[in-house]
């Protein structure tokens, strides 16, 4: 049986994690949740990894959410891990940036996985939505609370109340999606974005991303306090000195991540 989650170091600083249950539209099983939890920890603990791309082996559906057969068999709770929550991922603490490369529909749990990432690159035929209200249930893996942070509040309420989906073009216009590409260019585009991030000082990226993730939820005063603390941490690093030195010497910086 093929691994349901693939973990591949495609470049020294970039990892691709693939949902690999295409025949079942990558519906999440307890095994997938455990493996995805492990993939997050593996990437976080590898000092060489700077960016992670999450993608799917099914070009029609990114992820169909929870596997309903497993849920009906009583295995629903096993799709949650202690650290990661649903799919071992949606609430997992992560310092490094994650890009999700979406082909096809990312609805229900598929959208919740996408919202748990930091950036979205989508194919032109992608769809995004939370249809749970049509089934009498709730998007309980962060979807209904995270969507209003990614698109205007009124539109987010419309989507969760109607259960309707939006296409990639509309998602891009609303700021939910970072980049839209033809289906065969989604991974190249995601890799291009990952490389741009990986070129930068890894510790500075981690600190900046952490602040940006919290920016919409904290006050200016709290933001100032956290920013000053982050700067204090960076000032103690070799990379903090390397950046200005490389600029003065007119050469590419050599980041050490320390």
Please explain how this structure is put together.
This protein is an alpha/beta fold. The strands form three sheets. A six-stranded mixed β-sheet has the order 1-2-3-7-9-12, with helices on both faces. The protein has a four-stranded mixed β-sheet with strand order 4-8-10-11. Strands 5-6 form a two-stranded antiparallel ribbon. Helix content is 41%, strand content 19%. The chain is globular. A hairpin with a 3-residue loop joins strand 5 and strand 6 (85-86). The protein folds into two domains: 5-198, 2-enoyl-CoA Hydratase, Chain A, domain 1 (Alpha-Beta Complex); 202-248. The model has no long low-confidence stretch (mean pLDDT 92).
Please write out the topology.
Elements: E1 5-11, E2 14-19, H1 30-45, E3 51-56, E4 61-63, H2 68-72, E5 80-81, E6 85-86, E7 98-102, E8 105-107, H3 109-116, E9 119-123, E10 127-129, H4 143-150, H5 153-162, E11 165-167, H6 168-174, E12 179-181, H7 186-198, H8 202-214, H9 220-235, H10 238-248
Parallel strand pairs: 2-3, 3-7, 4-8, 7-9, 8-10, 9-12
Antiparallel strand pairs: 1-2, 5-6, 10-11
Q: What Rg is obtained from the alpha carbons, in whole angstroms?
A: 19 Å
Per DSSP, what share of the residues sits in E-state strands of 2 or more residues?
Answer: 15-25%
The computed structural class is alpha/beta
CATH C-level class of the largest domain:
Alpha Beta
CATH superfamily of the largest domain: 2-enoyl-CoA Hydratase, Chain A, domain 1
**Strand element count:** 12
Number of helices: 10
Helix content: 40-55%
Strand order of the largest sheet: 1-2-3-7-9-12
Largest sheet: 6 strands, mixed
- What is the CATH topology of the largest domain? 2-enoyl-CoA Hydratase, Chain A, domain 1
- CATH-level-2 architecture of the largest domain: Alpha-Beta Complex
**Global shape:** globular
Order of helices and strands: EEHEEHEEEEHEEHHEHEHHHH
Low-confidence runs: none
Domain count, please report it.
2
Quick check: average pLDDT? 92
> Whole-Å distance between the termini?
41 Å
């Amino acid at each position: 049986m093929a691994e349901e989650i693939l973990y591949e170091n495609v470049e020294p600083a970039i990892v691709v994690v693939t949902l690999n249950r295409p025949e079942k539209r990558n519906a999440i099983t307890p095994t997938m949740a455990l493996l995805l939890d492990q993939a997050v920890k593996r990437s976080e603990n590898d000092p060489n990894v700077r960016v992670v791309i999450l993608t799917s082996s099914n070009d029609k559906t990114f992820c169909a959410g929870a596997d309903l057969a497993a849920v009906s068999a009583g295995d629903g709770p096993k799709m949650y891990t202690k650290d990661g929550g649903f799919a071992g991922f949606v609430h997992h603490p992560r310092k490094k940036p994650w890009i999700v490369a979406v082909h096809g529909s990312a609805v229900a749990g598929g959208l919740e996985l996408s919202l748990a990432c930091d950036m979205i690159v989508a194919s032109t035929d992608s769809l995004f939505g939370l249809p749970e209200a049509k089934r009498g249930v709730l998007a309980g893996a962060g979807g209904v609370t995270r969507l209003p942070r990614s698109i205007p509040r009124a539109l987010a309420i419309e989507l969760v109340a109607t259960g309707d989906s939006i296409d990639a073009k509309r998602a891009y216009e609303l700021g939910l999606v970072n980049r839209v590409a033809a289906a065969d260019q989604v991974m190249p585009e995601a890799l291009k974005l990952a490389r741009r991030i990986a070129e930068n000082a890894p510790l500075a990226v981690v600190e900046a991303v952490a602040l940006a993730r919290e920016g919409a939820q904290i006050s200016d005063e709290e933001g100032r306090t956290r920013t000053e603390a982050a700067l204090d941490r960076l000032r103690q690093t070799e990379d903090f000195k390397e950046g200005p030195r490389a600029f003065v010497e007119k050469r590419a910086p050599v980041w050490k991540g320390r």
